[in-house]
TrEMBL record, chain A:
Its main location: membrane. This is ABC transporter permease. GO terms for cellular component: plasma membrane. It is a multi-pass membrane protein.
UniProtKB/TrEMBL annotation, chain B:
The lineage of its organism: Bacteria, Pseudomonadati, Pseudomonadota, Alphaproteobacteria, Rhodobacterales. One of its GO terms (molecular function) is transmembrane transporter activity. It comes from Marimonas arenosa. This is ABC transporter permease. GO terms for cellular component: plasma membrane. The keyword Transferase does not apply. Keywords: Cell membrane, Membrane, Transmembrane, Transmembrane helix. PANTHER family: ABC TRANSPORTER PERMEASE PROTEIN (PTHR43370:SF2), SUGAR ABC TRANSPORTER INTEGRAL MEMBRANE PROTEIN-RELATED (PTHR43370). It comes from the Bacteria.
Amino acid sequence: MLKLEKRPQPSRVFAWLTPLMAVVLTMIAGGILFAMLGKNPVEAIRVIFWDPLFNEQFASYSRPQLLVKAGPLILIAIGLSLGFRAGIWNIGAEGQYILGAIVGAGVGLAFYPLDAWYVFPLMVIGGALGGWLWAMIPALLKVKFGTNEILVSLMLVYVGEQLLASMSLGLLKNPEGLGFPGSRNLKDYPSAFNDELIAGTGMHWGVLTAFLAVIFAYILLNRHMLGFSIRLTGEAPRAARFSGVNPNLLILFCLGMSGLMAGLAGLFEVSGPSGQISIDFNTGYGFTAIIVAFLGRLHPVGILLAGLLMALTYIGGELAQLMLSLPSAAIQLFQGMLLFFLLAVDLLTNYRIRFVKREKA
Amino acid sequence: MDLSAISPALLLASLMVAATPILIAGIGELVVERAGVLNLGVEGMMITGAICGFAITIETGSPAVGFVAAAVGGALLSLLFAILTQFALANQVASGLALTLFGLGLSSLLGQEYVGLKPAQTPDLHIPLLSDLPFLGTVLFSHDVMVYFGLALVAAVWAVLKYTRVGLVLRAVGENHDAAHALGYKVVRIRVLAIMFGGACAGLGGAYISLIRVPQWTEGMTAGAGWIALALVVFASWKPWRVLLGAYLFGGVTVLQLNLQAAGLAIPVEYLSMSPYLITILVLVIMSADRSRAPGSLGRVFHASG
């Protein structure tokens, strides 16, 4: 009979090993899924994980895309991980991402067609502020009234989506767009366009910001008192309270920070790869980032790697859609499976499995 | 704008229809939470139920079989959550989110071939005499059978929780799982059953949207109904009858804003569509003062050591 025994300390070996195990298990389960859809599983896995990076025909297009997709995922996930560490659950990053894009693009469009160096920095501030304010709603309600931040932040995603629709049909609609929904394309407005920093690499300001966020989070969590309070609150809430950690301050900081980062991600996306505010601007990065945060074990470096891996499944998924006509929903399912397996094998980090003979009564 | 186009009888009647999905899903989640488990995957189970019910109804031509399939689909999906949280002892918040993300992916994969089809219609009941009553007949007595099923479910859950041994044990497990374990109750088994009941209810609620309320299949069609159902449980302070009250309140807001859209109110459609979510937030804020009623072991991991 199997018996679980709690480890006195979480296993360090398994803490690193479980994400890898989850990826392998997901590949196996995903392979079975693809086989059930009538595709060759080995080929499908190769197209998703190998071809975007190493296939001569596609790699020149796919490799830059890797950074383009990983940037927002990493940036959002870093922000979320701060709160998740302390048991503060912001799951409305998608909404904060939308608001960051709306406010940031709004600032840029307000200056159109002025050509000045300060337009883009102002947009960045606008984007950060938009996301931050949207996240402050659940934060303040939680602090003031004890309202559940999970439900409020999520409800605000749906409100944000409606706001996005209203903006692309109304206030921010391109006046020269022949009546089509959607804003002016920022690609045609150089002062506001978030162009590639090095041509052909996919590296834009958002990706750079994501890397900076990783470093920032690493220093915060390992070298700063506030980071210590976050970790302490997550691991031993009672001890944290006795040691004088102010829980309200943590809520405001963690939710605010994750909103700010999601807002930035939205701004860099709308001013760069996407180019315009449109009804279907958001593509679920805010939700996928939750998977990224967990896959990276809420550790900044882990999140960096997890973000790249998740970006790979996006690009590989698109490629598989093209090459094998694999439905896009299959990739979504694949990403969901990854989180499932991760949570399941995480058991091994905190518990030991023992085989014991059943005692005779 | 023409407000006189809104008929009070039809408004109230469609309120009952609009409330039914979140009512059924909400009462299921209430049972889960009374057993001490927080399953945030309601949205995922609802959408899975929606597509299971829809697909089976198209294939068999029978909505009744479709609803059964939806319940089975929701329960099977919730079993994944049960395995994660009860056997792998995973964090319930994260597992619930995983369930929602997984369910959304699964449903859009399953639903690919069903976009644009029309399911067999579920007939409205015609009760002799009662259905012919003026006003009340339209409002109360000429709905499909699932509306009454939802009401019966609330009554049944209330009675079972309040008056039966099963209900007492379930509540004991939810209030203090260590004490319940010490008394010899099978905490994990009871919770797994509660989770599956919740899953089946969420599946039924989802199928109600795809089979009766809309009736059509589109990706992500539950549009947050699962989360509203979760909010409903908090709103209800974990009391069954209050779930009914809350569901009708939200149903009322939804129907009213749809009617106002149709009547051509001067407010843009998008802002009206926001209102159910904003009202949910508002109600959550008002209710969050009363936290005393939450089951004691809600969301905590149970591991019988020794």
